Amino acid sequence: MRKTVAKKAAAGALPKRPRGHKLSAGGIFVPLSMVDLPVDGVVPANKLQKGLESAQKQITSLIQEIVDTATEDYRISEIELAASFNADGKFLGFGVGGEATIVIRIRPTE
Hints:
This protein is of the alpha+beta class and 110 residues long. The chain has two helices and five strands; from the N terminus they run H-E-E-H-E-E-E.
């Protein structure tokens, strides 16, 4: 497959490589920051373990902050957070993007 992609690139069948990108074996332009990711950009679950522990602490803190600042009675039916992790499984924050994102939905028990 790599030879086919190289032939197409040489023949001008593929668009010009954007700055800061590398042509993958499958013919896809990949940002250079993602080139060193594990195969297929997958972050193994065992690397996420410590990151998830850090995310859990942040979730607890965030929920406590919501409770502390609430001045009126209202019902929260659901909280949704997008936890972002880097390729090593380190928690980066909520909604900041990263190599892996896990959507967490928190619903109160009835």
